[in-house]
Design a protein that fits this description.
Elements (H helix, E strand, L loop, with lengths): L9 E5 L2 E5 L2 H10 L6 H38 L2 E3 L5 E3 L3 H7 L2 H32 L6 H13 L2 H11 L6 H8 L14 H26 L3 H9 L4 H29 L3 H6 L13 H11 L3 H29 L4
Helix pairs in contact: 2-13, 3-13, 4-8, 4-10, 5-8, 8-10, 10-13, 12-13
Length: 334
């Protein structure tokens, strides 16, 4: 009997058992009749990519115009010397060679280093301490959080002017309070020996609120089960803090540390507003960015100012890269 191709299975007896035979001809015919359907998933992906790039295009354009292009311009201008009426000429590495013998640049690096040495670790320590206290069940917690965050939303110029009044050696509040107990107050922002430390106090005070908000978010992200298990095991608050809170908060500490370093390297506004241009304390307080401002906008030495900016960028990149490597030893992401 002639075997026909159909969609039914064909059977045959073999050795007393039924064996199912696959209709190969049916498969071939089915493949021939198969219609070509367009790949909708690829078309949809292309459409999604188009709209995604369209949505981020304004941000990317802003980054290119206002960040990347100025960086490239600054690097180029660091190899030039500027004259009157915006004229400049290529001078090669002269600006960088000039840095070696620049005493003001070395002093500004020293001032910035002292500023970083005090503001970053002390600021982070106090921020963690305040965040842990505000994370407890205390009355008026929202009020305290608001008070600590107020300096963050206040203009740096306003903060500097208020503290300059507090530091005033003649009628300032601090010296007045010291005079009540028979102590003659120092010249807080005029004495070269203590002016930089006076600025450091203001910087720590004004920066705590921002870090506290970040640390609070990190503390609230720690599961309560860890603390409950520690309480069952009889662990005290100090042991819980160092064995549970700090390790689980280490990614947030790492982020705040990097941001604090970058911000401390770029300090300018407090120095500009609190230290007078003719003050004897200016040399002992000017930062790298303040020296950049002096050369770029006061002395009209934009080529050398650009070289200072490039040097500062390289230093920040190196320190950030070192922190990224070292974080593997103390940051716990699990």
């Amino acid at each position: 009997m002639k075997r026909r191709s159909s969609f039914f299975s064909l059977f045959s007896l073999k050795g007393g058992s039924i064996v199912k035979e696959i209709p190969l001809q049916v498969e071939v015919n089915a493949k021939r009749r198969k219609l070509k359907v367009p790949n909708l998933s690829k078309t949809r992906k292309r459409s999604d990519f188009f709209w995604a790039y369209l949505m981020i295009a304004p941000t990317m354009l802003g980054l290119l115009v206002f960040y990347l292009w100025p960086i490239l311009q600054t690097i180029y201008f660091s190899f030039t010397e500027w004259g009157a009426f915006g004229q400049y000429e290529w001078t090669g590495l002269d600006n960088y060679k000039r840095m070696v013998d620049d005493a003001n640049l070395l002093q500004s690096f020293k001032n910035t280093g002292i500023y970083i040495l005090f503001t970053v670790p002390i600021g982070i320590f106090l921020s963690i301490l305040v965040a842990v206290l505000l994370n407890q069940k205390i009355k008026g917690k929202s009020v305290y959080r608001t008070l600590y965050f107020l300096p963050v939303i206040t203009m740096p110029a306003a903060i500097a002017m208020v503290w300059r009044w507090l530091y005033n050696s003649d009628y300032g509040l601090l010296n007045y309070l010291l005079s009540l107990i028979g102590i003659k107050g120092p010249q807080w922002v005029s004495d070269p020996k203590i002016a930089l430390y006076s600025i450091i106090v203001v910087a720590i005070w004004s920066g705590i609120g921002y870090n506290v908000v970040i640390f609070l978010s990190g503390l609230q992200g720690i599961p309560k089960t860890y603390y409950e298990a520690a309480e069952i095991d009889g662990a005290g608050p100090i042991k819980v803090f160092f064995k549970i809170t700090l390790p689980l908060l280490s990614p947030v500490i790492f982020f705040v540390t990097i941001m604090s370093f970058i911000g401390a390297f770029q300090v300018f506004d407090l120095i500009f507003m609190m230290i007078g241009k003719g003050s004897t304390a200016l040399e002992k307080t000017q930062s790298i960015v303040y020296l950049f401002y002096q050369h770029a906008f006061v002395l009209n030495d934009k080529g050398y100012a650009a070289a200072i900016a490039v040097l500062l960028l390289i230093i920040i990149l190196i320190i950030t890269a070192i922190q990224m490597v070292l974080q593997k030893k103390w940051v716990h992401y699990d």
